[in-house]
Structure formats: structure tokens, C-alpha cells
Automatic annotation (TrEMBL):
Pfam families: Fn3-like, Glyco_hydro_3, Glyco_hydro_3_C. GO terms for molecular function: beta-glucosidase activity. The keyword Chaperone does not apply. Transmembrane segments: none annotated. It is an enzyme of class 3 (hydrolase). Residues 709-783 form the Fibronectin type III-like domain. It comes from Lasiosphaeris hirsuta. This is Beta-glucosidase cel3A. It catalyses: Hydrolysis of terminal, non-reducing beta-D-glucosyl residues with release of beta-D-glucose. One of its GO terms (cellular component) is extracellular region. The keyword NAD does not apply.
Length: 795
């Protein structure tokens, strides 16, 4: 028995004889052993990790990209192949890792072939850390607009700013985290907690960014759902947390939004820090070689999260193409690994080809601006890329603001003469921010912050922004009050403001809920802010609460107080914050934002999904045992009434829903599986996007103000025999902006259902399977305000 076989006989699986192991699994073991020579020495001797790999099946070899997805990809790959045919092995390997340069990540230039260094830069809400760049709303705010057109314009404007500064690869958009864990520290960077909504967001933003000529770097692939122990040795010695998800949840929840962005041609994907099913995401052959590069036909390149590469040979063979920001475990070692046969030369050529193909795909070889990224201590001429983006930022800021309570017609204001303002969140801080390139703070300072002492327009860490200025709520309301020749009183410091102003029309109280990269939140509310709201409400008969929050914020401490007459979830709106808010308060814009997550009555209602898993084991686990049941799906299953459900938001007018009709597009019987003879193109099997069903209804404005309704379609997928889990009673499968509608005006709304929308991931067939049977469906104003019910029968 050879050494490997002996090793396998020591594993704890009964009867797991090495002779029966698939060849590729043995390769994995060889890879593991081989990489030990490339891994950094550890001070603590860890328990063996070999047994843990059983949860993540080996998929080798890494499939080379060939550009077959579209003529554009074919051309891009052909050009890339020509370019790399002139490169030496040393040049090839140098392309696969980061080098010093002006950007957050830089590839090397190869001047003799006119290949420039490629510039990688954060982040999902715009260029960070620079002067004369805009601070766009965060992803979660954009998701709350439920507006495809705005999502796309957002991507386009962000893309234009990246391009203007010579950034080749923008590090965003984000669908990992998706928001599985209510207190997740980075949920605000992503596009909401529902895969369908996040998928539309990912596709639209990707399209916008790439239309501007910039490669979109989708992140973080995959199952990056908590910050606690996202990396090795965080807090205590040991490996990063392992997100352990089943095959169905993997596809139907976490991969889903990435599929949409890939289908739009995304050129790069960033693998995440943590382990996924026990194997580090940047060396997880199942997720990279298997799901991304085979099932989803990815044509571009996989870049590691910064310092996220955990081994040399293992990551190369598992499908990582580029390690950032330095040489990582590759550098000269990769050449050595090719020479000693641990990594094939084809694999390294494929890495380089994929990187250059993304560059050619976006035509960046044609007159692309040079990087213009500077430290704040560097003297340079301004490189102004802001254009008129402030206007779009204000529009998205307003469109993503969600009105959740409005009694006695408190809002919109009707020419108020006298307003009061309270709370630390109404103003900008006296000193801008310590970390010059992150308004919301960096990774170092945010542990334990519940709130930002100043108005919150973004979260902290690499997804943060550097606003050119911040229009605070105070500034915007001063402007309005001054114009109306009114009176304003304020107190931004006291927890218990003392002076009542009995003549005031309304009191506004501003609070926030902060989150940032590297840390999960400590809770979903803070007592200071809750007391502040109650104290203001005790003084003022019409108290309007405005919450800027980096995710869910519970409100039950005061929501039913009779003096709390209006409440707005104002999200993370970016630099025009005050203007966006004022346009809602004064009714210039009728609110149509909808919650992209569920706000519970009590934190405990989130059950095990309130906090990420915290264990100090050497190999900590986070088991996604809830499967498909995150956010509203979990509340529906457990029959827990949320305070404000997913998709909820009020308007200043009312809408009716009538005349539901449904039909199948195809008359012949539909096959259960997509046609296996059709090759995969980037994003997945093309037939998954075939329209198979259509749902229509009429939406009418029944109130007395013009307004836009977000009509939402929820679908129940029938369970099938042999399912390893049930399917949620309802899942979002469509949304449409109806409007703006004048009072009395009606509009027909149409939702198209694709094959994927009606399919489940069949774990045995390893395919998306269209179920036969009756699909109940509902159209309504939220995940619980369901106005019309019908069904679709698939035979
Ligand atoms: C973050 C990424 C980011 C990268 C570069 C990492 O810590 O997880 O999202 O793009 O840093 O700043």
C-alpha cells in the first residue's frame, strides 16, 4: 500500500477504501500534500484537516475557457490566446499575481507586447478613497428601489467614474453576503436578502458597469455570509469559518444572483475568504472548477479576495486565476510548480488567457485612460469624474427610501411653518472622518459601533465611499424651512431633549444603525437611539423617525407609540442624503421604496439566523441547515408575523390590483430538464432563461396623488417526489414598477417567468428541474400583502 492509501485508511469514514476513490480525489490529496511545501509555517499545530474535505467534492481538472459563450467572448479569447502565445512561462506566471502599483490591485505591464498593468479598485458604491469622485448609495439602498432602470443607471454611472480614473476592474457588485444572517456586517454592500431581487440587481449593475467599459468583479464567491472569523486566526488560532450549505440552497439561494450577472457578461469573480463546505473558497474545486467554470460556463477570471489565497498548488488546480494583492503563494513558486509537474502549463496559460480575455472583452486595449489614483498626500491636478451623478444619486436616494408608518396624513408635509430636529444622525460630524478614504470607517475601528456619530450615508470597510461633500438632513431641511420662511429648532446631542416646542408642526428624530466589514453587528437596535426616540415622542405629538441603517433595524421599542406618526427607513443614500430625504418628506417624490429584507418584531424572531455562528474551534462551522429558508421564507414557514415584511413600503396614495391572468408561453409539453445537447454558455444553460409563463394584472391608482406602485409576483413551486427538502410556500419571482400613475389611472403589468424561475435544483440529476404540476402564484404589494391569487399548470 502506498503512502497515500495508508493515509486514506486512517480517515474516519468506514469502508472508504482508497482504491474506490475517484482518481480526481486522489489528485486532491496529492495537491494537499504538495502544497504543504508552499504554505506558510503555522505556530500552532492544527488537527488534521483531511477528513473535512469530504463535504466539498473534488472537481478536477480545471476547465479551460474557450470563448464559446458568444462571438464577443470568442474574439476576446482568440486575441488573448494570440497575446499569451508570445509570453514566456515567467511572464505568464507574473500575470497571475498582484504587483506594486497605484491601485488596490495591479497586474504587471508587459511593454514588449503593449500589455498595460491592469488596475483593480474598490468598491461596490463607487471609487473609494479619492477626491472628485461621487459617493453613491450602497447596494442595499439600490435594492430597495426595486427599479431595474435605476439599478442599471447606477452601474453605468459608477462604471463611468471607474473608467475615468483608469480602473480596469471594479470590485463589485456584491451578492455575497446575500443577507442570510440578520446581523451580518456586510449585508449593506449587497443587493437585498432575496436571490431573485439580488439577481436582478447584480445583472443590472453589471450591465451598467460593463456598458461603461469596465470589468465588473462580482464578489464574494461564495457563501460569505458572516464576518466573524471570515479569515484564519481571527481572534483565536484556527481556520476560517466554514459555511456548509446543501446542494439545493447553494444553487437556489446563493449562486442564483451570480448567475444573472454572469449572463450579462461579467468578466471577473472574486472568491471569498472563508471556507465553503470545509474547503477554502479560493481553492474550492467544486465551486470554482465545478459550479462556476463548468455549470455556469465562466469565461473570465477568478481573482482572490485580498490575501485570500490559502495555498499554492491547490488553488491553481482548483481554478483560481489571479492572486491579489501580492505574489501570495504563487509568485516564483508557480513557475517552479509548473516545472515540477504539480501544475500544468496549460492551467497557467488558461489563467493568463482568462485575465486578458476579460480585458479584450471590454475593448480596454483601445485608448483606455491611465490609472489616476492618488494618496491624499500626493499633490496632483484634479481628475474630476463626478459628472452630473449627484442628480442620479439624489434620485436613487429618494427611490430607495421606504416609508413604513404614516398615520393621520403626517407625510407629506403640507407647508409646515415650524419643525424641530433631533438626533446625532441629522448632521455631519464636526471632523469629517479619521480614515481619509472611508467615510464609514475602516476595518480597524468599528468593533462595537452600533451607530455612527453623524449622519450615516454608507457602511464601513472596503465598500465605503469618500464623498465630495455630504448633504445632511439638517442642511436640506434648513434650505426648505428658509425657503418657506419658517422656523427650525434642533438639538443633536441630548438623549433627552429638554425643551418642548408646543407650536411645532412636527419633530423629526434621526437615528442610525452602523455596520462595517470585518465585524458582524452586535444587535439590530441600540438603547441610546431607542430612548432618544421615546423621549422626543414624549415631547411631541407628531414625531417622525428617520433611520439610516446598514441593514435591518428593529423598531418595536417605540413603533406603536401614539406620538410616533411616521417612520422612514432611509437606508444608506450616499452624498445627497438630505436632498433625497427632503424630496420624500415634502412630497416632491411619492415614496415607492420597498424593504429588501424582513424587519422582525423581536430579534429572537430571526432564530438561528440572527447571528452568525460563533465557535472557537480550530475548524469552526456555520451550518446552513435552514436550506432555502432565509429571511421572509423562514418567517412564512414558522408563521411568525414580522413587524414589516420583505417587499413592504407605503405610498402617499393607494393602489388596487385586479384582472389577474396567467398563461404558458409554450403549447407543447415542456421537458423537465434543459436540453443536454445545447452547450452551456456563461451564466448557465441558455434555456434556463426561456420565458415559459406570463402573468398579467391591472394596477390602478385609487388615491388622490400621483404615485408608483411596485407590484410583486410570488410563486410557489410544487414539491416533487424524492425532494430532499420542501420548497418555500412563496418566493419572489417578479416585480414591476407600475407608474407613475395619476389618480384614477390604471396600467397593465406583466411578469415573465423563466424556466429557472419555475425550477428547483435536482440534487440527484444535478440539473435545474422544471416541476410538473400546479404552481400557485400571488401578485401583491409585499410578501404578505397579497392581493390576487392564481396558478399556472405545467404539464
Ligand atoms: C474585501 C474585498 C475588497 C478587498 C480589496 C477585502 O478585504 O473583502 O471586498 O475588494 O479587500 O480592498
Amino acid at each position: 500500500m502506498d503512502y497515500l492509501s495508508q493515509l486514506f485508511h486512517q480517515l474516519p469514514w468506514p469502508g472508504f477504501l482508497v482504491e474506490q476513490l475517484p482518481f480526481s480525489f486522489r489528485n486532491l490529496a496529492i495537491v494537499l500534500l504538495a502544497t504543504s511545501s508552499l504554505t506558510r509555517p503555522s505556530t500552532v499545530s492544527p488537527p488534521s484537516e483531511l477528513p473535512y474535505y469530504g463535504l466539498s467534492p473534488p472537481v478536477y481538472p480545471s476547465p479551460p475557457a474557450n470563448g464559446s459563450s458568444s462571438p464577443r467572448w470568442t474574439l476576446a479569447h482568440a486575441r488573448a490566446r494570440t497575446a499569451i502565445s508570445h509570453l514566456t512561462l515567467a511572464e505568464l506566471t507574473s500575470l497571475t499575481h498582484g504587483h506594486p502599483g497605484p491601485c488596490v490591485g495591479n497586474t504587471p505591464a508587459i511593454p514588449r507586447l503593449n500589455l498595460p498593468a491592469l488596475c483593480f479598485y474598490d468598491g461596490p458604491s463607487g471609487v473609494r478613497g479619492q477626491e472628485f469622485v461621487s459617493a453613491f448609495p450602497a447596494g442595499i439602498h439600490v435594492a430597495a428601489t426595486f427599479d431595474r432602470a435605476l439599478m442599471r443607471q447606477y452601474g453605468r454611472a459608477i462604471g463611468a467614474e471607474f473608467r475615468g480614473r483608469g480602473v480596469n476592474v471594479a470590485l463589485g457588485p456584491v451578492a455575497g453576503p446575500l443577507g442570510r444572517v440578520a446581523t451580518g456586517g456586510r449585508n449593506w454592500e449587497g443587493l437585498g436578502s432575496d436571490p431573485y431581487l439580488a439577481g436582478i440587481g447584480m445583472a443590472s449593475v453589471t450591465r451598467g458597469v460593463q456598458d461603461a467599459g469596465v470589468v465588473a468583479g462580482l464578489k464574494h464567491w461564495l457563501l460569505n455570509e458572516q464576518e466573524w472569523r471570515r479569515r484564519k486566526d481571527q481572534g483565536t488560532p484556527g481556520e476560517a469559518v466554514s459555511s456548509n450549505a446543501g446542494d439545493r440552497a447553494l444553487r437556489e439561494v446563493y449562486v442564483w444572483p451570480f448567475m444573472d450577472a454572469l449572463r450579462e457578461g461579467a468578466g471577473a469573480v472574486m472568491c471569498s475568504y472563508q471556507r465553503a463546505n470545509h474547503s477554502y473558497a479560493c481553492q474550492n474545486s467544486k465551486l470554482l472548477n465545478g459550479v462556476l467554470k463548468t455549470e455556469l460556463g465562466f469565461e473570465g477570471f477568478v481573482v482572490s479576495d485580498w490575501d485570500g489565497q490559502m495555498a499554492g498548488v491547490a488553488s491553481a488546480n482548483a481554478g483560481l486565476d489571479l492572486t491579489m494583492p501580492g505574489p501570495g503563494y504563487w509568485g516564483d513558486h508557480l513557475e517552479q510548480a509548473v516545472r515540477n509537474g504539480s501544475v500544468s502549463e496549460e492551467r497557467v496559460a488558461d489563467m493568463a488567457e482568462r485575465i486578458l480575455a476579460a480585458w479584450y472583452y471590454l475593448d480596454q486595449e483601445k485608448a483606455y485612460p491611465l490609472p489616476a489614483l492618488y494618496d491624499n498626500l500626493e499633490k496632483h491636478l484634479p481628475v474630476d469624474v463626478m459628472d452630473d451623478h449627484a442628480q442620479l444619486i439624489e434620485e436613487i436616494g429618494a427611490a430607495g427610501t421606504v416609508l413604513v408608518k404614516n398615520v393621520n396624513g403626517t407625510l407629506p408635509f403640507n407647508k409646515p411653518r415650524f419643525l424641530c430636529m433631533y438626533g446625532y444622525d441629522a448632521i455631519v460630524k464636526a471632523v469629517p472622518w479619521k480614515n481619509h478614504d472611508r467615510y464609514g470607517g475602516g476595518y480597524e475601528v468599528n468593533f462595537g459601533w452600533n451607530t455612527l456619530n453623524g449622519t450615516l450615508i454608507t457602511g464601513g470597510g472596503s465598500g465605503s465611499t469618500t464623498p465630495p461633500y455630504v448633504v445632511s438632513p439638517f442642511q436640506a431641511l434648513q434650505e426648505r424651512v428658509a425657503k418657506d420662511r419658517g422656523v427650525l429648532r434642533w438639538d443633536f446631542y441630548s438623549e433627552d431633549p429638554e425643551t418642548p416646542y408646543v407650536n411645532a408642526d412636527s419633530c423629526l428624530v434621526f437615528i442610525n444603525a452602523y455596520a462595517g466589514e470585518s465585524f458582524d453587528r452586535t444587535g439590530l437596535a441600540d438603547e441610546f437611539s431607542d430612548r432618544l426616540v421615546l423621549n422626543v415622542a414624549a415631547l411631541c405629538a407628531s414625531t417622525i423617525v428617520v433611520i439610516h441603517s446598514a441593514g435591518i433595524r428593529t423598531v418595536d421599542a417605540w413603533i406603536d407609540h401614539p406620538n410616533v406618526t411616521a417612520v422612514l427607513f432611509a437606508g444608506l443614500p450616499g452624498q445627497e442624503s438630505g436632498h433625497s430625504l427632503a424630496s420624500i418628506l415634502y412630497g416632491d417624490v411619492n415614496p415607492s421604496g420597498r424593504l429588501p429584507y424582513t424587519v422582525a418584531r423581536n430579534e429572537s424572531d430571526y432564530g438561528p439566523l440572527l447571528n452568525g455562528s460563533v465557535s472557537f474551534d480550530y475548524f469552526p462551522d456555520s451550518n446552513f441547515t435552514e436550506g432555502l429558508y432565509i429571511d421572509y421564507r423562514a418567517f412564512d414557514r414558522a408563521d411568525i408575523t414580522p413587524r414589516f415584511e420583505f417587499g413592504f413600503g407605503l405610498s402617499y396614495t393607494t393602489f388596487s390590483y385586479t384582472a389577474l391572468s396567467t398563461f404558458l408561453v409554450v403549447s407543447t409539453a415542456l421537458s423537465e430538464f434543459p436540453d443536454p445537447s445545447i452547450p452551456i454558455t456563461q451564466g448557465g444553460h441558455a434555456q434556463l432563461w426561456d420565458i415559459v409563463g406570463v402573468v398579467r394584472c391591472a394596477v390602478a391608482n385609487t388615491g388622490d396623488r400621483a404615485g408608483t406602485e411596485i407590484a410583486q409576483l410570488y410563486v410557489g413551486i410544487p414539491d416533487g417526489e424524492g425532494d430532499d427538502d420542501t420548497t418555500p410556500v412563496r418566493q419572489l419571482r417578479g416585480f414591476s414598477r407600475a407608474g407613475p400613475l395619476a389618480p384614477g389611472e390604471a396600467l397593465e403589468v406583466e411578469f415573465e417567468l423563466t424556466r429557472r424561475d419555475l425550477s428547483v435544483w435536482d440534487v440527484v440529476a444535478q440539473q435545474w428541474r422544471l416541476r410538473k404540476g400546479e404552481y400557485p402564484l400571488w401578485v401583491g404589494a409585499s410578501s404578505r400583502d397579497l392581493r390576487l391569487q392564481g396558478s399556472l399548470v405545467v404539464e
